[in-house]
Design brief:
The chain has 352 residues and is an alpha/beta fold. It folds into 2 domains: 193 residues, inorganic pyrophosphatase (n-terminal core) (Alpha-Beta Complex), CATH 3.90.1640.10; 132 residues, Roll (Diaminopimelate Epimerase, Chain A, domain 1), CATH 3.10.310.40. It is built from 11 helices and 13 strands. The strands form 2 sheets. A 7-stranded mixed beta sheet has the order 11-12-10-9-8-7-13, sandwiched between helices. A 6-stranded parallel beta sheet has the order 3-2-1-4-5-6, with helices on one face. Helix 2 runs antiparallel to helix 5 and helix 3 packs antiparallel against helix 7. The longest helix has 18 residues. 46% of the residues are buried. The N terminus is likely disordered. Bound molecules: manganese (II) ion. The site of manganese (II) ion (MN) has 6 residues, from loops.
């Protein structure tokens, strides 16, 4: 079968479907600890295979669906997802990866297995170009945007559930359309918005939240240290791998803060999230450099993350890893304040 190996321009959805051909056993993989964008993209791809090819597909993931919002998304929209520890990768004849790329360190596809299809909006990785089909659009705000275009290209009906999922994927990845939004994202937004089920969406966005979540937030604030316009929180042990990202977003909204780094230990890994509000900055490159030779990392212009294995390390060695990451971060950003001020040290005099 001849499929253009280049980053596809015209009729990408049709080209992607031609890769499947007569093959029946399809696996759609999300990234680890799936977020709404990867979940919605996987659900859309499954819908696309079902309606354009009459083919069933399995959605796989590793890690946990941590945030209460994301659990609600899966539950209310009835997205059927299977943990990879219950999967045998060799049983599938087609593997599609959404919102992630091969060997990026944030998906559970075994190293020696190359996916056939990759759809993503992170910077293109060289290994990805070896896949039969890849459609990687780093300037897009979400993978949900790409999948919305696919559904429209194929003229498939998008029901309210799927529209709500894609809308939520687009909304969360662009932080409510406040970052990395292109015309394509706005087009997808305008297309999806009238189809959204408002009460379902409200239920997803406002779930009840465990008490532990509030306590971790309080703890993270207590552990936050500000260095000029940089806020760093070493959050300690985490019960949910998504909380560094949430905290990094939350702290970034503080007046005078332009960069955030939040990290914490989750199941033998140091997880970290980097955010910036500065335009033209490369949070992804910063993340990559602070974990260099320690772990994996990457991301977008304003949003990035990484992880470092702490297996076999003693508590003091773990602390050294966190310190190294912090030092590298401050150095890369050329921060002059090396001491830092604990966020809670002096209650700010708020004029309002
Ligand atoms: Mn995404």
């Amino acid at each position: 079968m001849s499929v253009s190996k280049a980053n596809v321009q015209e009729n990408p959805a049709k080209k992607m479907l031609s890769v499947v051909g007569q093959k029946r056993a399809i696996l759609i993989m999300c990234h680890n600890n799936p977020d709404p964008d990867t979940i919605a993209s996987a659900a859309a791809l499954k819908h696309l295979f079902a309606h354009a090819l009459r083919r069933k597909a399995v959605i796989g993931y590793a890690g946990t669906i941590g945030r209460a919002e994301n659990r609600q998304l899966v539950r209310r929209l009835k997205v059927d997802m299977v943990r990879t520890d219950k999967l045998n990768f060799s049983k599938f004849s087609v593997i599609a990866l959404v919102d992630s790329q091969p060997h990026s360190g944030n998906n559970a596809i075994p190293r020696e297995v190359m996916p056939d299809i990759v759809i993503d909006h992170h910077p293109l990785r060289r290994d990805t170009t070896r896949c039969t089909f890849y459609d990687v659009r780093p300037h897009y705000g979400s993978s949900s945007t790409i999948l919305t275009e696919y559904l429209r290209e194929l003229d498939l009906t998008v029901d309210r559930k799927l529209a709500t999922a894609l809308y939520y994927g687009l909304k969360t990845d662009t932080n409510g359309l406040s970052r990395s939004v292109t015309k394509a994202d706005l087009d997808a937004f305008n297309y999806l918005f009238p189809k959204v089920a408002p009460r379902t969406l409200a239920g997803i966005e406002n779930p009840s939240i465990p008490k532990s979540y509030y306590l971790k937030f309080a703890d993270a604030i207590a552990r936050s240290v500000q260095y000029d316009d940089v806020m760093i929180s070493n959050m300690g042990t985490l019960y949910n791998p998504d909380v560094t990202a949430e905290m990094a977003d939350f702290l970034l909204r503080m007046e005078g803060v332009r960069w955030t780094l939040c990290m914490g230990e989750y199941k033998e890994y140091l997880l970290l999230s980097v955010r910036t509000s500065r335009r033209g900055m490369m949070a992804g490159k910063v993340a990559l450099r602070i974990v260099k030779s320690l772990g994996t990392g990457g991301g977008h212009e304003k949003v990035a993350g990484g992880k470092i294995s702490l297996k076999g390390l003693k508590p003091e060695e773990r602390a050294q890893v966190a310190k190294k990451v912090t030092d590298r971060f401050l150095k890369l950003l050329d921060v002059q304040d090396h001491e830092g001020k604990p966020l809670t040290a002096a209650p700010p005099a708020d004029p309002r």
